[in-house]
Amino acid sequence: MxxxxxxxxxxxxRKTTTVATALGIGLVVFVLASAFMLGTGITKTMVGAGRSxxxxxxxxxxxxxMASSLEVNTLGLIGAAPGVKHSNAGTxxxxxxxxxxxxxxxxxxxxxxxxxLVRGVPATALEVRPEVHVIAGHPPRPGTDExxxxxxxxxxxxGMDLEQSFELKKNRPxxxxxxxxxxxxxxxxxxxxxxxxxxxSFGRDGLVxxxxxxxxxxxxxxxxxxxxxxxxxxxxEALTETGYYEKQSSGTALFIKIMGGVIVFFLSGGAMIGALxxxxxxxxxxxxxxxTLRALGFSRFSILTSFLLESSVLSLAGGLLGIACALCMSFxxxxxxxxxxxxxxxxxxxxxxxxxxxxxxxxGLMGILGGFYPALRAASVSPIEAMRG
Amino acid sequence: xxxxxxxxRNIWRxxxxxxxxLSAVTVLVIFFLLLRTxxxxxxxxAEQGARDRIGTRHKVSFIMQLPRRYVEEIRSVPGVKQxxxxxxxxxxxxxxxxxxxxxxxxxxxxFLEVYDEIKVPKDQVEAWKQDRQGAxxxxxxAKKRGWKLGQKVVLQGTIYPGDWEFHVSGIYTADSPTxxxxxxxxxxxxxxxxxxxxxxxxVGWIMARVDDPGRAAEIAKAVDKKFxxxxxxxxxxxxxxxxxxxLGMVSAILRLIDVVSFVMVLIMGLILGNTIAMxxxxxxxxYGVLRAIGFLPKHIVLFILSEGLALGMxxxxxxxAIGYPFVQKGMGPAMEENMxxxxxxxxxxxxxxxxxxxxxxxxxxxAAIIPARTASKLEVVSALRRxx
Amino acid sequence: xxxxxKGAAKGTMISLxxxxxxxxxxxEQLDVLAGLDLKIEEGSFDALMxxxxxxxxxxxxxxxxxxxxxxxxxxxxxxxIGSMNEGQRAGWRASNIGFVFQTYNLMPVxxxxxxxxxxxxxxxxxxxxxxxxxxxxxxxxGLEDRAGHLPSQLxxxxxxxxxxxxAIVTDPKIIVADEPTGDLDRTSxxxxxxxxxxxxxxxGKTIVMVTHDPAAAERAKVVxxxxxxxxxx
Lengths: 389, 388, 233
What we know:
The complex is a heterotrimer.
Chain A: H1 4-13, H2 15-47, E1 54-59, E2 70-71, H3 74-79, E3 94-105, E4 113-121, H4 125-128, E5 133-137, E6 146-150, E7 165-169, E8 172-181, E9 190-194, H5 195-201, E10 207-208, E11 210-214, H6 221-230, E12 236-240, H7 241-285, H8 287-296, H9 300-329, E13 333-337, E14 344-348, H10 353-379
Helix pairs in contact in A: 1-9, 2-7, 2-9, 2-10, 7-10, 9-10
Chain B: H1 3-10, H2 15-48, E1 53-58, E2 66-67, H3 70-75, E3 80-88, E4 91-92, E5 102-106, H4 108-114, E6 118-119, H5 122-130, E7 134-138, H6 139-145, E8 152-157, E9 162-174, E10 183-187, H7 188-194, E11 202-203, E12 205-210, H8 216-226, E13 234-238, H9 239-249, H10 251-282, H11 284-293, H12 297-338, H13 350-377, H14 380-385
Helix pairs in contact in B: 1-12, 2-9, 2-10, 2-12, 2-13, 10-12, 10-13, 12-13
Chain C: H1 3-10, E1 12-25, E2 28-41, E3 45-49, H2 56-63, E4 71-76, E5 79-80, H3 86-96, E6 97-100, H4 112-121, H5 127-140, H6 156-168, E7 174-178, H7 186-201, E8 206-210, H8 214-219, E9 222-227, E10 230-231
Parallel strand pairs in C: 3-8, 3-9, 6-7, 7-8
Antiparallel strand pairs in C: 1-2, 1-4, 4-5, 9-10
Helix pairs in contact in C: 4-5, 4-6, 5-6, 6-7
């Protein structure tokens, strides 16, 4: 086997070409990794909001909480269904919430209006969603005009920071008393207020948008769902929370992933051809060298693998650079519209190890594919080349 | 024969390398066309937004409805010519639940007056007015679903649950390329009469034609002022401003795409630069011979720059020759049909064609600058010493 | 004819006086040529020979105006080219020197006649005139029927003949050849040398040739031997 140092030294000798080609591959790996980091970031944000032992009940046929509305008197029925967990006090762990998307002034733009999701929640909401933690101030007290604002909204919209206030609608000011986080899920882009405040502000008296319940365990879901959907008059539909959020995010996440795929398809095509050009030139430049190696006794196969290794080293070097830059993206936060709910959500680039590793491997593959034909050419060089002047 | 023509011929010295380089440039040019068209298509709808129409919606949330009586009140605002209302219905075709298209309830006469880009034959309009369950359907949507005139279509409501039957009274086209031709517009009375009393007499948003497009923003403010002290306030803006704010929400994506186009340009530049640099290095002795004969360093620079420019131009031309039909004739109609809500108009503009050509050519030229300088700075004797 | 008569009849074409050429490699200074004197008569056919590293190529480069001496004078055809800058020398070379190198003389993408035309591009002649002169030059080397061929379609000897045609197309006084037969087989080499001889005797060109080939040296009128930067005779 030809030692790897031969390949590494050869790469270092033709510095400019090596750097140019590695950069090209690095760029593609960077884009690939970033796109998929964004995709998983979106899924993490959206689906992260869901638990597999929570179920969400909507009106049948509604795709989102916003389009759904249920009467308040169904709450009792839902709470009594089999599988619903009860608190120590004996009450069912459920949260009937009023969800609405409102226009608010975005900061840093000239009066540009953007959509914010407001969730009117009962006192039980934090019990049903224990992943929501108040990190500053306190949660809004029931029956008051207090609200708490998700971490992602903080400072982005007018009046959405501790001790500040904004208007839910005209003459309906609310005071921000708390900031909360929820592990990066989409709740962080929401405003939570008391459910009655929401009802009276938005004309939803006697209604809720959705009901979220905690089940005794994920396995109880099927029975729960059957009960919910059995009475056709009620017109209810039940999903696991994770299922609901997956449906929500699938559109956006899929869009990003498809775009990422298309982008990578084209870019990697270009970069691979770049690697191909470089390795071909290297092979033809080193004809005599290769001939000498063959004359010394190295087999065609060892030449083939040697050159394949060389192009892999080249592309992996570029790939590592690309990964390093992609990691920097994890500090970037993106405010984008969630197509399903029209609300503006803050997404981040999730530095998922699987994505990073996969991108690096893809980079290596680009090198191997691009370098395959040149490696074959190298392997076909005969020892006589060594003697050509 | 001159230095420039020789330089152009020199491209084919290493046929394989040139073919590969041109292939890479071609792939990237096609991609560039695609990306920029995506951005253009998205932003074009904003540019095409009517300047003489304003839209009025509930100030608090676009989900909430406005009282129907607001329509007449808006009509009385000075500067307003015609008014029509529309309400989002949000239905799905039970046979294609994943396929999204818009369903909106309107009053036929006023709607067609205000939204006059929509073109329907007169007899179909009459049929629509006569039929309570009638609807006009965009030609792209009709073609996709295979719906014909008179066809009965049953859709599932998402906001208003249940099965709703519509009759295709007419099929519309539009003379403006950015109008969505995949919408189903139906009779407002069908929706209003079928819903609960406390939900009746409400509309989703109100469109108004103003007499002076230059005063659209002013008139919009006047409308909002009128309802300022009511229980339900309004938010009005010109259609163009509305599209712009929608774009603002997806601006992050557009910026991402911009970043990707930039990356792509970098990669193209790297490949071109690499190829040219390799060629220059291999021909050092030849440049030495030219210098010996009497050619000056500036001639060598001209020589190499011409080669780079020619390579870039050729790559650009081939990329356009393949890419333009691909995006325009292949992807264009496909995007318009399947993602018409986002890309009502997916076409390659002449400006983009020219820009792409200049981009590729410019990159070829730019990529040749450093190799040209290095080569010209070499002493004749050193250049001659290099073999091959 | 006496030496004086010979000198009067022809005159000195090339004159090098106390020429020194040094190169600096890092901190070391290498004196490739150390105070050399050389005179070549007009119409002479001179060979420069010597072992590797003797400085013969360096000397040829100075004579050809490709390089400047570190000190000393290089006067060719009355012109002090040693003190010209590169731009001036380039112009001077174009009208006064014809070049024949060992290999890779021709541009692969140009046909034989186009290669011969190359030096004329600098003279700013109209295309028809250029083509005419190039064809005359090709005829002089006996390759007029190969005018439209690419170098890849020519043999090694034919390539060198095209090179010689290019070297004479501007009608220079001096032809400089660096190992012109180095890459050729015996037959082709002899052809080339015969051609050079013809240029010298029939056309009166002064020829300075660096060579290892003893047969080449035989064709020359004067042979200079160089060793470690000094002329042996």
